[in-house]
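Researcher: I've been going back and forth with a colleague about how RecJ-like exonuclease might be arranged in three dimensions. Neither of us has a model we trust, so I'd like an independent prediction. The organism is Halorubrum kocurii JCM 14978, in case that matters for your notes. Sequence below.
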Amino acid sequence: MSQAEQLQDLLEEGSELNIVCHNNPDPDCLASALALGRIAAAVGIDERQILYSGDISHQQNRAFVNLLDIDLKPFEPGSVQDRQPDSLLAFVDHSVPSENNTVPPDTAVDIVIDHHPAEGIDARFVDHREELGAAATILTEYVRALDVELDTDLATALLFAIRSDTLDFLRGATHGEYEAAGHLHEYADQEMLRQLSTPSVSGGTLDAISTAIDNRKVTQAVLISHVGRTGERDALPQAVDYLVRLEGVQTAIVFGLVDDAIHVSARSPDARVNVGTVLHEAFDDVGSGGGHHDVAGGEIPLGIFADYTSDDVQLLDIVEETITARLVSELNLSDEKEK
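Model: Here is an independent structure prediction for RecJ-like exonuclease. You can compare it with whatever you and your colleague have in mind.
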């Protein structure tokens, strides 16, 4: 029995499906959730919800939700703990309760479909393929195998998700992504794809990128910078995507204060550096960090730092010193820096 058929059999046991996205969901997570919902509808599940925590703040993610009219609801932790036996819980594009989600630890999960490195995955159905560039690739495979109707919106969502997560097939793309994209292309709305690819950029995002440029420090082909405090969480990955292109830089890491946490985003085309491992080892004792060898992120609650001072400038100095020191130590960098 194929994985698609195993998933179908499990869904047929349920009367309700709760699809939980990871925090601050991106197009890959949202498109995968949309596709899983369509598969569930095809087997007769009428009660379906796509749930998320955090914010959809990246302008591209907001455009994705609005243009495709995706129905999202805020996640409430109690809703998955008290559910009925025939109410199924699914994770897409993430895999473990309490890691990059607000699902309570030890919550029983029915379905996990993911491509990110992870350990300790426990669910009734697991399709975990780290070698793939996008979770949407897996969902496209299921839609095709189960003959689920592929309308324009779903095809557009899945195709854009694959393009987005692979940087237009320049990062982590495999034969699976190319095959899925080839199938989706004839069904997708090309004009909507263009709109999704060129969303407007907020002033706050530009300010954060500018700050990261000004604060950059380069040591041995590793660039470390910060955006200060920002309300634009998704400005960090945009800043690091820009800075990793700087001549002579092979690894870029950008961090910043967002609300009551320190967020970190990293990129590295250097095969000698696994930024997922770097962030995990640097921050696992105080927060969370991880991802792929070339793309990773992390989050560290401010904790006692938030109460240490009411002076934001002093707080930023403390955060910069602490986070930079951990990264320098983990990357075995010397103290010599160059602009």
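Researcher: What would you highlight for our discussion?
Model: I'd start with this: The two ends are 57 Å apart (CA to CA). After that, consider the following. The chain is about 40% helix and 20% strand.
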